[in-house]
């Protein structure tokens, strides 16, 4: 693991892994900030649930969550929930969010006006 981990993405070796870690540094920082801001609301979420809330890939989010756990910003609770892979994952909270807050219920989207339907006419009436 690189000497900068968990403050920067790391790799266990050289080559492609190291190149990938160096390439995602700025995106990783942005994701960590987004995760922290989300979790400061008091939510209790798994890494996959965080990814869903942020509309991000679990593959991008899970490593950032692990980094935030390692530096103590996020804390693992004893609760576990099933994640996308079917395995259980720890529920997390922000270190400064002592009171749990439920996620707001999703509001249904407003109905959209549908596209005009094609009008089918009798060709005999037109060309008759």
| Rg (CA only) | 23 Å
Q: Portion of residues in helices?
A: 25-40%
Beta strand % = 5-15%
Mean pLDDT: 82
Q: How many beta-strand elements?
A: 2
The end-to-end span amounts to 79 Å
Walk me through the structure.
This protein is α+β, with helices and mostly antiparallel strands and 128 residues long. The protein has helices at 16-23, 25-39, 47-54, 58-70, 123-127; strands at 74-82, 88-94. A two-stranded antiparallel sheet has the order 1-2. β1 (74-82) and β2 (88-94) form a beta hairpin. α3 (47-54) packs across α4 (58-70). The radius of gyration is 23 Å and the shape is globular.
Key traits:
single chain; 128 residues; alpha+beta; two-stranded antiparallel sheet; 5 helices; 2 strands; 12% strand
Summarize the structure.
This protein is an alpha+beta fold. The protein has five helices and two strands. α2 packs across α4 and α3 crosses α4.
């Amino acid at each position: 693991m690189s000497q900068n981990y968990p403050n920067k993405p790391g790799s266990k070796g050289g080559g492609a892994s190291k190149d990938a870690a160096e390439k995602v540094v700025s995106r990783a920082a942005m994701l960590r900030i987004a995760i922290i801001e989300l979790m400061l609301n008091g939510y209790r979420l798994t890494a996959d649930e965080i990814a869903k809330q942020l509309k991000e890939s679990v593959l991008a989010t899970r490593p950032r969550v692990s980094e935030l756990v390692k530096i103590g910003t996020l804390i693992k609770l004893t609760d576990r929930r099933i994640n996308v892979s079917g395995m259980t994952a720890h529920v997390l909270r922000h270190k400064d969010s002592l009171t749990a807050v439920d996620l707001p219920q999703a509001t249904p989207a407003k109905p959209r006006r549908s596209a005009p339907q094609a009008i089918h006419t009798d060709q005999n009436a037109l060309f008759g």
